[in-house]
Amino acid sequence: MLNQSSPIIMLELNELCPPIVDRMMAAGELPNFTWLKSQSDVHVTFTDDPNLEPWVQWVTLHTGQPESVHGATELDEGHLIDTPRFWDKMADEGIESLIFGSMNCRTERPDKVWLLPDPWSAGVKATDPAYQGLHDFISYHVTEHTNPNAKQGMNEMASVVIFLLSHGLSLTTITDAVSQIASEKTSKTDRHWRRAIILDQLLWDVFEATYKKRRPDFATFFANSTAFLQHRYWRHMSPESYTVRPSDPDMAAYGNAIEESYRHMDRIIGRTRKLIGKNGRVIFATALSQEANTRYEHIGGKFVYRPHDFGKLFEWAGAPKAKSFEPVMTHQAWATYDTQEQAQAAQKALSNITSNGAPVMDCRVIKNRLFFYSNLISVVEDGFEVVHATEDKRIAFTDLFLLIGQVNNSQHNRHGCFWLPKAGNLPTVHEGTLPLEDATNLIMAQLTGTKQHQAA
Q1: In which domain, by residue range, is 309 found?
Q2: Domain membership flag for residue 366
Q3: What is the pTM for the complete model shown?
């Protein structure tokens, strides 16, 4: 076990961008980032993983191995990834960890590793059953945020409120949440986007209370609001980069959303400083970052659709009835079956939903699960129909699918932030880029005091 006077918290601030952090620090808007940089060895990471998605890159960082080894390609695959995470390796040396929301994670050492899965993980459970209700609640609201018909029961809501009140919910978060609800009803501009920031605050409160109770040697805290808002509103932050410009009302509503999320992340660093004490250490990592996505300007931007009802979509296609559906990002979901053969039958059935002879669904089978989504990315015309390729029937596309709206205004970038507590008199800012999988060794060296650990 580490010296309790020198614990480490790794802030996993998903997809923050080095250029934006630098620009806002230079403008004096991020005082806690500025402080942290002055205490750190600053690296820009780079990944060669062929799939540039956060659920891949975080696994690369946690295992010290590239995608070709760990095999992650989608969300909710953490329970399938056998490559050990570094916190399990450190458990073998007596180091206790608190892993709070890290993407696609798992642990083989619940005796030393306390774990709360990310909201997109249905296949991994919280190591403390008392927290499973919170995970289920957060997961439901994150994965169903694009479903206007999604409503949880009052019993579930009441249970989570009771849990939060006994697990650190702060007066600041309560006040901000009440203010958020009021602003949504009274503001002349759309304020719903700030819910992502409120969610981070709520999760931080629980993390802070849990951290104080357990006092681990090492902890992670994962926050996703900036990544979410960048994908939605990069066009509004940087309209000059796009052919399709946002309207004046949209600029008024969303033009400051991304910068506000960075100021929110700065406040998280400030709270981390206070939590960890003067002898504690902070690691800051983003895994990758984002940049403007102009690939879809010729069709007016990228628009996506999700099924109104997964079960009705599968029934219309003639697919076997699934045991369960697990929505993940925006318009994508898993269908879980008892057998791989059933999942393959569902894949074949969904491929029969066509337009002009081409399937409108993308699907792939992994073991007994089917990953699926609509591949249409532009606004469909009124009256647009899809046809069943093997049965004599057709249906209006909008009877099966709901337009989510314009998304992916940004795309992933291979560079990420990685700041480590400064070692002696080493340079603060390192030239060039650091391979993302090499960052794992540096984290492990911080934890053990050794200079080299080769990932297995």
Answers
A1: 302-407
A2: yes
A3: 0.89
